[in-house]
Amino acid sequence: QVQLVESGGGLVQAGGSLRLSCAASGTIFSINAMGWYRQAPGKQRELVALINSNGITNYSDSVKGRCTISRDNAKNTVYLQMNSLNPEDTAVYYCNLATRPSSWSPLKAYWGQGTQVTVTS
Questions:
Q1: Nearest CA among 78, 41, 86, 80 for reference residue 62
Q2: What is the spatial distance between Cα 60 and Cα 89, in angstroms, rounded to a whole number?
Q3: Which among 22, 45, 77, 106 counts the fewest CB atoms within 10 Å?
Q4: In a 3-state reduction of DSSP, which class is residue 52?
Q5: pLDDT mean across residues, the chain
Q6: What single-letter DSSP state applies at residue 89?
Q7: Residue 93 — pLDDT band, cuts 50, 70, 90?
Q8: Cα torsion through 67, 71, 77, 82, rounded to 10
Q9: CA triple 56-60-63, angle to 5 deg
Q10: pLDDT tens track for 46-72
Q11: Phi and psi for 87 in degrees, rounded to 5?
């Protein structure tokens, strides 16, 4: 089993910055893709950013140029640096990763518990 612990959310004024972290623990052989998603009230969960095991990143158009996703493989941790935040970024942010407990096991996806980001105007 794998547990994900998120941190770094909070209340920030428009134009401010936040850095989210998500640390994975448990039986982990390798981690494939890691990503951040968000869900605003009344809206569907949407992709924010992805990073694969080779460090290749992908961003949604809404955050491109303002956010940077990174990972520390030694710590099984993924980060999301968010700059120039605006009220439209207000949402619960969830980390997601695909991992396997051994070399012969299939990949399984896990979700974090979510961390609230609130941006005031």
A1: 86
A2: 12
A3: 106
A4: coil
A5: 96
A6: G
A7: very high
A8: -10
A9: 105
A10: 999 999 999 999 999 999 999 999 999
A11: -55, -25
